[in-house]
């Protein structure tokens, strides 16, 4: 069981390194199609459910149907990473909430947690490759520092933006805004 878990971690790290290199080289092509962010969020929350339960973190979803023109696989990867981070940095008894909403011509995905938060002085570096906040390293929380860098690049490839609001010791909120498909 330990060997399998470590092999999966290493496989994930290799995949993240390869994707980061491909993104930096401009070698990632999006497979654009009509996608419902609420549907993708439901799948991501369902997949993360067992991990949330095991960690003792309440995982909630509030999602309205919002359509975007995007790459379903890459958008799912964005959601999976943000939810994984929220769970990883939230202690037992805490909460992580995923919300999908429409605002004017924008689709907004918000992932908020009641976790350890990020020191203000470090927040500007969150999207740098290999950067890890001191609050994660001092607590021994595993990670490579590639996830948010990859997420930011994927969001920007979709014509969107990402921002983080965090209060050390009280949690983090990540907002992704993507152009919405208007019908």
Helices and strands in order, then pairings?
Blueprint: H1 2-24, E1 32-36, H2 37-55, E2 58-63, E3 67-71, H3 72-88, E4 95-103, E5 106-113, H4 134-138, H5 147-157, E6 161-167, E7 171-179
Parallel strand pairs: 2-4
Antiparallel strand pairs: 1-3, 4-5, 5-7, 6-7
Describe this structure as you would to a colleague.
By secondary structure, the chain is α+β, with helices and mostly antiparallel strands. It is 41% helix and 27% strand. It is built from 5 helices and 7 strands, in the order H-E-H-E-E-H-E-E-H-H-E-E. It has helices at 2-24, 37-55, 72-88, 134-138, 147-157; strands spanning 32-36, 58-63, 67-71, 95-103, 106-113, 161-167, 171-179. The strands form 2 sheets. A 5-stranded mixed sheet has the order 2-4-5-7-6, covered by helices on one side. Strand 4 (95-103) and strand 5 (106-113) form a beta hairpin. Helix 1 crosses helix 5 (147-157) and helix 2 runs parallel beside helix 3 (72-88). The longest helix has 23 residues, at 2-24. 33% of the residues are buried.
Question: Count of helices?
Answer: 5
For the record, give the distance between the C-alpha atoms at the N and C termini, rounded to a whole number.
Answer: 49 Å
Strand order of the largest sheet: 2-4-5-7-6
Q: How many DSSP E strands?
A: 7
Along the chain, the helix and strand elements come as HEHEEHEEHHEE
Helix content: 40-55%
- Biggest β-sheet description: 5 strands, mixed
Give me the Rg, rounded.
Answer: 16 Å
Q: Tell me, what's the shape? A: globular
Measured by DSSP, the beta-strand proportion falls in: 25-35%
Low-confidence stretches: none
* Overall mean pLDDT: 85
Structural class: alpha+beta
């Amino acid at each position: 069981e330990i060997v399998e878990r470590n092999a999966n971690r290493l496989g994930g790290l290799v995949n993240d390194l390869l994707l980061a290199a491909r993104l930096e080289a401009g070698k990632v092509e999006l497979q654009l199609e009509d996608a419902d962010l609420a549907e993708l969020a439901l799948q991501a929350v369902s997949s993360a459910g067992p991990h949330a339960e095991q960690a003792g973190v309440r995982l909630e979803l509030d999602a309205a149907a919002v359509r975007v023109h995007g790459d379903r696989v890459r958008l799912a990867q964005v959601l999976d990473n943000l939810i994984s981070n929220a769970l990883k940095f939230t202690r037992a008894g805490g909460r992580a909430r995923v919300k999908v909403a429409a605002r004017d011509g924008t689709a907004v995905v918000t992932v908020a947690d009641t976790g350890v938060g990020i020191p203000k002085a470090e927040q500007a570096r969150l999207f740098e490759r290999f950067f890890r906040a001191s609050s994660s390293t001092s607590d021994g929380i595993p990670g490579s520092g590639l996830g948010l860098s990859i997420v930011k690049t994927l969001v920007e490839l979709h014509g969107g933006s990402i921002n983080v609001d965090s209060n050390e010791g009280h949690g983090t909120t990540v907002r992704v805004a993507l152009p919405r498909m208007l019908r």
